[in-house]
Hints:
Elements: E1 5-6, H1 24-27, E2 40-41, H2 43-49, E3 51-58, E4 61-67, E5 76-81, E6 84-88, H3 96-104, E7 110-112, H4 122-128, E8 134-137, E9 151-154, E10 158-162, E11 165-169, E12 178-182, H5 185-188, E13 191-195, E14 199-200, E15 206-207, E16 209-211, E17 216-217, H6 220-230, E18 237-240, E19 247-248, H7 252-267
Parallel strand pairs: 6-7, 7-8, 8-9, 13-18
Antiparallel strand pairs: 1-2, 3-4, 4-5, 5-6, 10-11, 11-12, 12-13, 14-15, 16-17, 18-19
Helix pairs in contact: 6-7
Amino acid sequence: MPAFICVACGTQYAPSAAPPDACPACIDERQFVPVSGQSWTTLERLGSAHNNKFRRLAPHLMTIETTPAFGIGQRAILARTPSGNILWDCIALIDDATIELLEGLGGVQAIAISHPHYYTTMVEWSRALGGVPIHLHEADRQWVARPDPAVQFWSGDTKPIAPDVTLVRLGGHFAGGTVLHWADWERGRGVLLSGDILQVVPSGHVSFMWSYPNLIPLSAATVQRMLKTLEPFVFDAVYGSFSGRNQIDMRGKEVVAASAARYIAKISES
């Protein structure tokens, strides 16, 4: 039986004879069902019309993106740490060429994902890469559409997954919304891979939303709590979930703090 994939968001569901009646990720108010309605594909069909491309993002960081764009259009990021490669976030397409390229780069030791919109075909990725663990925050357990032993839930606000690499739960966009901090990146400059828990915007700032497509903001108190959780972590760069101007190459921590202050000031206006 096929494991159907939602065309709108890329979420893959457990194998079934027929597609699900609806995609819970899309009918949730943080996302949307397209005006054309819910539609479905399979990994095989997706691979016949799309390819993945690899690009250098920054030292020791590579992006993996699907072309033409599919679903939400996010990118995955391969963090090439001294202790092994970590795949940050997922895209729906995983094919033989992608697997061969990743194996040629030393394989992947773990997958970590910022929030449910990017779970996509995470089980397929894990299996293709040798059954590597998928680290998800337990607060988002209900959004796992295809359970698998590779999925490992963690709790609390931080989880080290490699030397100098820590998952940090900020919440916000989703209760388990997570960023990845690599402390020793670029000789201690530090980097934050933010998904869209902190959405890097074209002005070179970050912003915060409960729903991006529906423009539903977070409260000032929530953003203050997110900033407080990040306080112990040093990072000079911030890389988000989309290509283009979705990155901060210097003074990342200062920019995040200034962005939060700007956001809180505006949301608090009477």
